[in-house]
Amino acid sequence: MERFRQSEIIKQLTAKQLVRQVYYTQLALLTISFFLGIFLFDRFSSFADLWKFDFKLVLLGVLNGVAVVALDAVMMKILPDRFYDDGGINEKIFSSLSFGGIFLLSLVIAFCEEFLFRGLIQTHTNWWIAGIIFAAVHIRYWGHWYLIVNILLLSFWISGIYELSGHSIAAVMSMHLTIDFLLGLIIRKKAKNQQEEGISNEN
Asked: Higher pLDDT residue, 88 or 189?
């Protein structure tokens, strides 16, 4: 029932409105991060240490991101479409964006979410708490057992990379960016193919 209501709401929103909502959500997370950061870090040097750039750690994040996408692509081939049915949100968003638009959206999401969940929450608690909170805020997946398990496992994977990298924001940001960007391209391509097949069948 919940997914049905969500699906009906999605149908009433344009792709542009959905994309705008995603950006608003990320802005809200960034605002929360700003105020949390003021209270959680007593020294700027401690905060700055999280942002140190290391190419090897970025590569670690990218490779793990590719691994996640490859695994997800295999599961998409094996499992019925209903296992990945999020009410049409991802398809509507990514099919409306250009290559650059998908990259920009993925970059903003990776920055805002990893800054909050890994950079702030995990740094000051542990990776289990950060992982659970990360999964919990993805409300639109709650009505689908497979998607919530999927996002929970992914969250723990990213949290594990954060620990393995010695608390490197660059590592988890690059991983998150790689996942969202590549999956966005896959969803966009799949939607375009379905659209072309529909036009071909009509002719």
From this structure: 189
